[in-house]
């Protein structure tokens, strides 16, 4: 999995240099933010409804939020509290999640 590979890279080579405008985030947080930014969009409710009705793909918001809320490493990195929306209690885990 890519997050594990990223963690191995950081352990081997050290933390990557951060740009000043994102210095408040850890490298691990930036990893997840970069993943989420791939799916970032601003869609009107009527367009979202049409997308759900016409296509079999999952809307981007859910591709990010559901996947990450089921990933324990995400919850740990962002310190999501128990039962918070981004730290599901009953996680759907495929393989080793850490």
Features:
51% helix; 98 residues; mainly alpha
How do the strands and helices of this protein lay out in sequence?
Elements: H1 2-13, H2 27-38, H3 45-54, H4 60-69, H5 72-77
Protein name: Peptidase M13 C-terminal domain-containing protein
InterPro entries: MetalloPept_cat_dom_sf, Peptidase_M13, Peptidase_M13_C
Domain Peptidase M13 C-terminal: 5-92
Any overview of this molecule?
This protein has 98 residues and is mainly α. It has five helices and no strands. It has helices spanning 2-13, 27-38, 45-54, 60-69, 72-77. The radius of gyration is 16 Å and the shape is globular. It starts with a helix and ends in a 21-residue tail after the last helix.
Structural class: mainly alpha
Number of strands: 0
Number of domains: 1
**Approximately how much beta-strand content do the residues carry?**
under 5%
N-to-C span: 9 Å
Question: Roughly what is the average pLDDT, rounded to an integer?
Answer: 89
- Low-pLDDT windows of residues: none
User: Total helix count?
Assistant: 5
Short description:
Residues 5-92 form the Peptidase M13 C-terminal domain. By secondary structure, the protein is mainly alpha-helical. 51% of the residues lie in helices and 0% in strands.
């Amino acid at each position: 999995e890519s997050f594990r590979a990223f963690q191995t890279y950081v352990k081997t080579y050290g933390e990557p240099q951060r740009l000043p405008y994102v210095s408040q985030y850890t490298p691990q947080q930036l990893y997840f933010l970069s993943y989420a930014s791939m799916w970032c969009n601003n869609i009107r409710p009527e367009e979202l409804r049409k997308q759900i009705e016409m296509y079999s793909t999952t809307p981007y918001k859910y591709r990010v939020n559901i996947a990450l809320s089921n990933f324990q490493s995400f919850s740990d990195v962002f310190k999501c509290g128990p039962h918070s929306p981004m730290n599901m209690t009953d996680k759907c885990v495929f393989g080793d999640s850490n």
